[in-house]
Amino acid sequence: MAITTYTELTATIADFLNRQDLTDAIPSFIAMAEDAVNSDDRFRVMAGVTRSQATIDGSQTDNFGQYFLPVPQDYVSMLDLRLMELPPPSRLDMVTMTQMEDLRQTLSNGSSPRYYAVAGGTMEILPAPAPGSEYTMQMVYYGKLPPLSPTNPSNWLLNMNPSVYLYGALIHSAPYLKDDERISVWAGMYNNLAENINASDGRAQFSGSTMKIRTRRRYR
After folding, report:
1. CB 90 within 8 A of CB 98
2. For 117, how many CA atoms within 13 A lie in the half-sphere containing its CB?
């Protein structure tokens, strides 16, 4: 059976489990599979890149001389962050929160932002812009997988590789059904798919150049 929609996916999961009484549970298995994909670097190669803009407004600098912005709700990881006013557009460097603390001691607020750090759903910009100053910031980032639902029946992952969804959901079904022996079977299928996707992209993206090491999360 071809899997092209959310309804077909839920039906296929039920068929694989030979259970027709999991109508309420299967959406949770799918949602947990989506969470796993969002945190697995091996699937970044398939995801579409999102571009958005925001305004950095110096009047929003807080009483401690710090400037914070919320990251987009679908944010996973940054590819590029630039201020568009500075010719050419000036790229900001990403640092850790520890490095941000050290830089804060040496940089004076009021000059154009040069660094950023992301913690949770918040981004800090340093130096904090001076009151009255304003910049347009362009962010290019990997976004989360658009979740499937009856009202959003498909997305890029289901279109490109529905088996990832299938085996990802089946992994999470095993503890629910107290069928832990099946976890290794479903996880093996899932990890083979993920590694093949990653290797295929590596051949295309890094042909003739030095390969970059990726940090990977695996199911056990």
Report:
1. no
2. 16
Q: Which two tokens stand for residue 152?
A: 């959003």
Secondary structure (3-state) at 130: coil
Looking at the whole model, is its pTM more than 0.90?
Answer: no
Edge to edge, the sheet with strand 49-57 lists: 49-57, 134-143, 75-83, 90-91
Q: Is the pLDDT of residue 186 over 80?
A: yes
Q: What is the pLDDT of residues 136-156, one digit of tens each?
A: 999 999 989 999 999 999 999
**β-bridge partners, 67:** 125
Exposed e or buried b per residue across 174-186, where buried means at least 16 C-beta atoms within 10 angstroms of its C-beta: beeeeeeebbeeb
CA separation for the pair 177, 16 (Å, rounded): 13
Place of tokens 């040496």: 106
Backbone φ and ψ of 209, nearest 5°: -135, 175
